[in-house]
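Bumping with the actual sequence this time:
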Amino acid sequence: MLTPLDIQNKEFKKGFRGYDEQEVDAYLDEVVRDFELALKERDDLKAQVAEAQRQVQQYRTLEEQLQKALLVAQQTAQEVVEAAHKEAQLITERADLEGKRMAEEARASVRAVEEEAARLRSELEVFRAKTRSLLESQLRLLEGTPGTD
């Protein structure tokens, strides 16, 4: 590749009725300046492209990390939802069992109260029978006792 130094050091042969040497030198100086500027711009653009490629790679890496984090977050959310469903199911099952236990206790209490009521009715009947028997016996005693009339 041609460099600015190559252009600057280029020597042309002199010929009869050749080009004006000062004009050629001035033109070559202008070409060297433009060529140096073009090379500098090219180097700057190469640096910018390299920086852009580096940033693109960073963004790709960041994107991959974000995708992985999103996937982990989705999996975690799914696990949390599943755990919540399982916990809700366990709570429901426990509540059902507790409800059945309480209903059975209530039935047992009702049976106990009914049994107590039946026992008390029975005792009341016995008490009535004894009281009636006592009253009848007292009445017979009173009827058999001679006169206080």
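The tokens above came from a reply further down the thread. Residues 21-144 form the longest helix (124 residues).
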